[in-house]
Backbone:
C-alpha cells in the first residue's frame, strides 16, 4: 500500500468534516495534569448527590449475574416506565444514554439528501449525529439564547426529516412553554419527525406542568427522549429512553444493537424510577444550589441566563476560556461553551452547597486576578 495514503480520505465525507464532541474534563485527568487533590467537577450536569440508595442496592444484587447477556428487550424497565408514564411498552425505545436515541433517529431517518433542523446554541450532539450519516444540518439563529420556533418552522422544507428541540435547552437552560411547543409540533408537516429532547424534564416538572406525553396520541411523528443521566444520577451507566408511537419505536428498534443496554443499567434505572425520595432531594438541592450560585453571581456583578435545568450559564463579559483555565488551576472544573458560539459564558452545573461555595470562592479569586 502507498504509505502516503491518508486514512482521512477514506472516511465518509460527513465524518471527515465532523468536529468531535468535547466532554467535560474528568477529575482524574486534572489530577494527573496538575497534581491537585480536592477537585470538584461542575461540568457535565451530573447529579451532585450521586445515585440513589435503591439504584445502588439493585446494582449490588445484580453483580453476580454479569456473565449473562442482559435482557435485550428491557422488558422489566419498559414495564416500569409504561406504568409510570401511562404509555404501552411498545411505545418505548431504550438507549445507551438518550444520546443513542439521537443516533438511532439519525440512522433511521436521515440520508445525504435530507436535512435536520435545530437551533443555534442547541445540544452539540445534534450536528454530530446528522453529519455522521452525511445529512445536512440547518442551524436556525437563536432568539434570546433559546429556540426561535417561528424561524425554525420556516426552515422546515420537504427535505427536512428531523427537527431537534431541547427543552430546556443545554447549554443555555432556556425553556419553551408547553403551549408554544404544542402549536409548533402541530404546525410541522407530516414529512418530518420532531425530536423533543427532555433530558432535564424532572427539573422542569414542578415549574411547568409538562404534558408532552399526552401529545403522542395526536402527533404520530413526535419522539420524546429522556434520560437517567441527569436527575436520576446514573450518567456513568448510560441509559435513556424514547417515547413515541409504537410504529416509530418499531423503526428505531430495527437499527438498535440487540444488547445496547447493559444489565446494571437496566436494574439501576428501574430501581431509580421507584426512588421518589432521592429524586425529590435532588430537585431540592438543585433549587437551593441555583439560588446560591445566582446570588453569588449577583454579588460579583455578573449576569446569567435564567435556567430551567441543573446548570446555569454565567456571562463573564470577557473571554471564558482563560477564566476556565484559571478555575482549573484552583481545582474547579466547569464547562467552556465557545464551541456553542458563546465565548464569554461558562456553564456551571449545580453542585452541593459546599461545591457551589468552593466554586464561587474560586471564581471570585480568579476574577480578581485576570
Ligand atoms: C445530557 C443530555 C442528553 C443525554 O445524555 P445521556 O447521558 O446520553 O442520556 C441529551 N440531551 C441533552 C440536551 C443533554 O443535555
Residues:
Amino acid at each position: 500500500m502507498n504509505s502516503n495514503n491518508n486514512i482521512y480520505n477514506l472516511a465518509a465525507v460527513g465524518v471527515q468534516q465532523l468536529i468531535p464532541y468535547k466532554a467535560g474534563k474528568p477529575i482524574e485527568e486534572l489530577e494527573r495534569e496538575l497534581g491537585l487533590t480536592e477537585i470538584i467537577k461542575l461540568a457535565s450536569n451530573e447529579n451532585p448527590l450521586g445515585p440513589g440508595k435503591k439504584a445502588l442496592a439493585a446494582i449490588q444484587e445484580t453483580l453476580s449475574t454479569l456473565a449473562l447477556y442482559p435482557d435485550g428487550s428491557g422488558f422489566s424497565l419498559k414495564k416500569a416506565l409504561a406504568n409510570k408514564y401511562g404509555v404501552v411498552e411498545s411505545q418505548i425505545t431504550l438507549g445507551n444514554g438518550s444520546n443513542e436515541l439521537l443516533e438511532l433517529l439519525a440512522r433511521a431517518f436521515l440520508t445525504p439528501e435530507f436535512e435536520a433542523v435545530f437551533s443555534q446554541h442547541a445540544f452539540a450532539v445534534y450536528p454530530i449525529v446528522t453529519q455522521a450519516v452525511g445529512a445536512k444540518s440547518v442551524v436556525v439563529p437563536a432568539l434570546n439564547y433559546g429556540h426561535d420556533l417561528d424561524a425554525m418552522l420556516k426552515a422546515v422544507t420537504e427535505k427536512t426529516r428531523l427537527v431537534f428541540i431541547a427543552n430546556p435547552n443545554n447549554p443555555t437552560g432556556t425553556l419553551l412553554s408547553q403551549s408554544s411547543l404544542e402549536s409548533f409540533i402541530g404546525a410541522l408537516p407530516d414529512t418530518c419527525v420532531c425530536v423533543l429532547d427532555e433530558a432535564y424534564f424532572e427539573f422542569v416538572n414542578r415549574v411547568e406542568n409538562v404534558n408532552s406525553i399526552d401529545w403522542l396520541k395526536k402527533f404520530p411523528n413526535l419522539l420524546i427522549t429522556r434520560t437517567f443521566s441527569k436527575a436520576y444520577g446514573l450518567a456513568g451507566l448510560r441509559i435513556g429512553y424514547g417515547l413515541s408511537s409504537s410504529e416509530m419505536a418499531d423503526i428505531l428498534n430495527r437499527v438498535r444493537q440487540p444488547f445496547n443496554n447493559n444489565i446494571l443499567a437496566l436494574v439501576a434505572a428501574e430501581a431509580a424510577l421507584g426512588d421518589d425520595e432521592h429524586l425529590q432531594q435532588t430537585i431540592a438541592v438543585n433549587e437551593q444550589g441555583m439560588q446560591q450560585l445566582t446570588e453569588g453571581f449577583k454579588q460579583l456583578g455578573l449576569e446569567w441566563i435564567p435556567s430551567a435545568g441543573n446548570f446555569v450559564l454565567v456571562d463573564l463579559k470577557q473571554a471564558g476560556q482563560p477564566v476556565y483555565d484559571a478555575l482549573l488551576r484552583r481545582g474547579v472544573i466547569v464547562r467552556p461553551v465557545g464551541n456553542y458560539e458563546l465565548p464569554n459564558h461558562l456553564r456551571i452545573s449545580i453542585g452541593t452547597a459546599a461545591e457551589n461555595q468552593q466554586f464561587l470562592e474560586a471564581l471570585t479569586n480568579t476574577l480578581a486576578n485576570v
In short: The chain has two domains: 22-50+277-367, 53-273.
